[in-house]
Amino acid sequence: MDKADTAFILAAAGLVLLMTPGLALFYGGMVRRKNVLGTIMQSLILIAVISIEWVYLGYSMSFGPDIGGFIGDLSWFALRGVTNAPSPDYATTIPQTVFMIYQCMFAIITPALITGAFAERVRFVPFLVFSLCWAILVYNPVCHWIWSKGGWLANLGVLDFAGGLVVHATCGAAALAGVLVLGSRKGYGKASFMPHNLPMTMMGTGILWFGWFGFNGGSALAANDVAATAFVATHLGGMAGMLMWVAMEWLFQKRATTLGAASGAIAGLATITPTAGFVGPNSSIIIGCIAGVVCYLAVNSKARLGLDDSLDVVGIHGVGGIAGTICLGFFASTAVNPAGVDGLFFGNASQVGIQLLGVVVVAGYAFVVSWILFKVIHGTLGMRLAEDAEVEGMDSTEHSETAYNN
């Protein structure tokens, strides 16, 4: 056991947890004032709900002893046998409890990301039922496929350093399913849906960016050179995404916006996530620039497609995670990380196909299961707010509160 590695991953776990309240602020600032508390609550409550699920089911399903490459068994139910001794299979220089709680923070933020797609129009209790079922049926299996010892996609060579597939592609696919099932907000395309507090969103952006160093850097699972590579790549990808998004705004709209800068930063950070520990600084900047272009175009196409993805989960996280996963097949280099692979630009064209396979399987599975969950829960519990409740706002109708008293 290495004390430095243990301290590093404990700190990284705290940073990843901080991302969830950061996300709450990021999303909360972009909705109308009558929905800000309800939107924040959807992120914060998942810290409790998913942590409980992780202790009793999630960790064992995701990383427990493998069943056919598809799921872990439940031998670690309630963390039975998970001790402060290092695991022989995962992060062998830190206590297994530290690895467990670090991975818990990823499980928390992933369903929280989905909430931006159906912001301002879902009821609280059906939302909780969906999030719990989604974690069990989507997040845990996909996590096992890619990150566990014996996972079938991992055995095929699919790589995902910190969550381009496990986190961003799954939540993006679920977000698309939710938008299709639940429909648009009342007045979409006619009424104004301007963000009520952009300074709040910018604060959330800063917290997310800060936490992302633990998200990506900590995924090295040790205080080593790969962590340093991922830390640098994270920052460079985020700043390049911001710069390119603002440039796209200036090119097409003749103005640069603070919301665009925030969106570009998150797009760059999401896109660099699957590649962060496998690429060098120059590749990171290129990937961030790609993120700024493709995510900007994706977000600006939703109106033409008639999709009310309220806070751009599909266009930023879904498209960004998929783009980054594919970029890994081009830009990865064993000179940067000997435990990785070489991509197309370093002589290995086959990795592009492997990464594409991972995208198709993960995004397809997440979309289908999420669509079924939305259909069933909406059909039985009524996930969508009643029309008069939507007009009044979630803060009042769902929580009997108001964010502003004047």
How does this model look, in words?
This protein is an all-alpha fold and 406 residues long. The protein has one domain (3-399): Orthogonal Bundle (Ammonium transporter fold), CATH 1.10.3430.10. Helix content is 67%, strand content 1%. It contains 15 helices and two strands. The chain has a two-stranded antiparallel sheet. Helix 1 packs parallel to helix 3 (96-114). The longest helix is centred in the C-terminal third of the chain and has 32 residues, at 350-381. The N and C termini lie far apart (55 Å). The mean pLDDT is 97.
N- and C-termini, Cα separation: 55 Å
Shape category:
globular
The CATH class: Mainly Alpha
Architecture in CATH? Orthogonal Bundle
Distinct helical segment count:
15
The CATH superfamily turns out to be Ammonium transporter AmtB like domains
Mean pLDDT: 97
Low-pLDDT runs:
none
Strand content: under 5%
Order of helices and strands: HHEEHHHHHHHHHHHHH
Largest sheet: 2 strands, antiparallel
Approximate helicity band: 55-70%
Number of domains: 1
Strand runs, count: 2
Using only C-alpha atoms, the radius of gyration works out to 20 Å
Indicate the structural class.
mainly alpha
The strand order across the widest sheet is 1-2
- At the fold tier of CATH, the topology name is Ammonium transporter fold
